[in-house]
Specification:
- The protein is α+β, with helices and mostly antiparallel strands and 437 residues long.
- It has 3 domains: 2-158, no CATH class; 163-254 and 388-430, Nucleotidyltransferase, domain 5 (2-Layer Sandwich), CATH 3.30.420; 255-385.
- Helix content is 47%, strand content 20%.
- The chain has a 5-stranded mixed sheet with strand order 12-11-10-13-14, with helices on both faces.
- Strand 8 and strand 9 form a beta hairpin.
- Residues 1-9 have low confidence and may be disordered.
């Protein structure tokens, strides 16, 4: 019954109250209790004629088992929803169907201790970065209760949200350590990222060729045919996966890793020359120790004073000019990535490769030249799409945030679903229509 007083509507029908508070239909309220901070609502379903699912004959209620679920708080108080279920039995003694329990996924899913709406709410809360412990404290339940609901509904959401897979045309692969224990070897996982839309597609429990290639095979031919670019660092495993599973996709070496490799070669030469000249590692007053940070800076970002200081320190600590040559090589590699004309960029990289491979070059530079020769075509592909593996690297940082919130993970499925809900950008509107029976 609804009573109207001026512009205010007062609901006195218990069934309407249930619909307003807990969003359930076809139920009636049997009891309402409040003991201290806890509130309990007892409900049961309203039954029409029930038929046996095997023989379609008439059925009757055998008994009413009672199950209590955790629901969303009401007026700031924890809510417990007690559902008096109906265990039915077929009246035909010849029927093999003895008994069964009537279920309603709108109230709660099987093997879930939260109501459906509470489970979906908890999934979204954890998916936005809150810890399971924090959400469990708000609902007044145990950690495992929330985590089980997040795995159930989060997994169902990720499986139903197919758009995350279908809209990508360029992917990136990168590894990240899943767990590192003092008494065990480090376990690595592979992040598959949509580098165009900046979202994680999936996280694999391995970085081995067979496992990553099998995941791509499972996506189907239509998905693989849409991928036109594959970004990667200089990983031979991921390059082999692309070659085997996405032969028509252009592989793009990430500029950051290429320049970082040149910087490592530069620093290795600086440290070697330091020891050859002075017989010890760098100290505060040594020229090559003082110049170490200037060598990592871009040439165009140096002020006139910094550029002059760089030249003076190199002349003092680098009489053979090996460090200066390595610095020029690093800057020419940066020029390659800044070049806008693909043909000129390819010519620049080819010239740099040949100069690095010259016998007069330091061994560290010759090693860099061999790397450029191996990855030459994939480095040049950067100028076809201007794609990098940077989005994958940045999303790995979001994954690490989830690891910090959870204080580490040892169960990979917990890790995968939590990370995908947070960094995978799922369509949360789909969660409202998810049905878990």
């Amino acid at each position: 019954m609804i009573q109207q007083s001026r512009s205010t509507f007062v609901i006195t029908d218990p069934t309407e109250i249930v619909r307003a508070l807990v969003g359930l239909k076809d139920v009636r309220v049997l009891a309402y209790e409040r003991r201290g901070p806890d509130t309990r609502l007892v409900i049961e379903q309203t039954l029409d004629e029930v038929r046996c699912p095997r023989c379609a004959g008439a059925a009757r209620v055998k008994d009413r088992p009672v199950v209590t679920y955790i629901d969303l708080p009401v007026f700031g108080s924890p809510m417990r929803l007690t559902w008096r279920k109906h265990r039915m039995r077929c009246v035909d003694p010849a029927c093999a169907m003895t008994t069964w329990v009537l279920r309603d996924h709108r109230i709660a899913a099987v093997s879930c201790l939260l109501t459906t709406r509470a489970a979906k709410w908890a999934t979204e809360q954890v998916g936005t970065g809150r810890s399971v412990k924090e959400v469990a404290a708000e609902l007044g339940c145990e950690w495992h209760t929330i985590n089980d609901a997040v795995l159930t509904y989060g997994g169902a959401l990720l499986a139903a949200d197919k758009k995350r897979l279908t809209k990508t045309t360029a992917i990136g692969l990168d590894e990240t350590n899943f767990v590192r224990l003092a008494d065990q070897h480090t376990s690595y996982a592979t992040t598959v990222c949509d580098v165009t839309n900046h979202q994680i597609i999936d996280i694999l429990a391995s970085r081995h060729f067979v496992d990553v290639a099998q995941w791509m095979a499972d996506q189907g031919l239509d998905w693989r045919s849409r991928i036109t670019y594959g970004a990667l660092d200089m990983s031979a495993t991921y390059a082999a996966v692309y070659s085997a599973m996405l032969p028509r996709a252009a592989q793009v070496v990430d500029p950051f890793h290429a320049v970082a490799l040149a910087n490592r070669a530069l620093d290795a030469i600086r440290r070697r020359v330091q020891i050859e000249q002075l017989g010890h590692r760098g100290r505060r007053d040594d020229p090559l120790f003082q110049v170490r940070r200037l060598l990592t800076r871009a040439e165009e970002s140096l002020t006139p004073e910094a550029a002059e200081r760089l030249g003076v320190l190199l002349s003092l600590g680098d009489p053979t000019a090996e460090v200066a040559v390595a610095y020029r090589v690093k800057e020419r590699l940066r020029d390659f990535y800044r070049e806008s004309d693909p043909a000129l960029a390819e010519a620049l990289l080819a010239d740099l490769r040949d100069k690095c491979l010259a016998r007069s070059m330091p061994p560290e530079i010759r090693r860099l030249g061999r790397t450029i020769r191996t990855w030459f075509a994939k480095m040049c592909n950067f100028h076809l799409a201007r794609l990098t593996n940077g989005p994958t690297e940045s999303l790995n940082n979001l994954i690490k945030r989830i690891k910090r919130v959870g204080f580490g993970f040892r169960n990979f499925e917990n890790y995968r679903i939590r990370a995908l809900l947070y960094a995978g950008k799922p369509n949360w509107r789909v969660l409202g229509s998810i049905v878990v029976r």
